[in-house]
């Protein structure tokens, strides 16, 4: 129950990464700056929960 699966959605394109995060330690949503291969630059990725 401690870790949940999340999707990191690009703010520019439809590209996404999937990862897990610790729900107990990180209560807020994750925002990361990662590389987007469709636009070939670094952009912000926002967390979205994966529906089961």
Measured between the Cα atoms of the first and last residue, the distance is 14 Å
The low-confidence runs, each spanning 5 or more residues with pLDDT under 50, are none
Can you count the beta strands? 4
| Count of discrete domains | 1
Strand order of the largest sheet: 2-1-4-3
- Regarding CATH, which class? Mainly Beta
| C-alpha Rg (nearest Å) | 12 Å
Largest sheet: 4 strands, antiparallel
Approximate shape? elongated
- Tally of separate helices: 0
Mean pLDDT: 93
The CATH topology assignment is Rubrerythrin, domain 2
As a percent range, the share of strand residues is over 45%
| Topology pattern, helix = H, strand = E | EEEE
Helix content: under 10%
What is the SS-derived class?
A: mainly beta
Q: Based on the coordinates given, report the CATH architecture.
A: Single Sheet
Would you identify the CATH H-level superfamily? Ribosomal protein L33
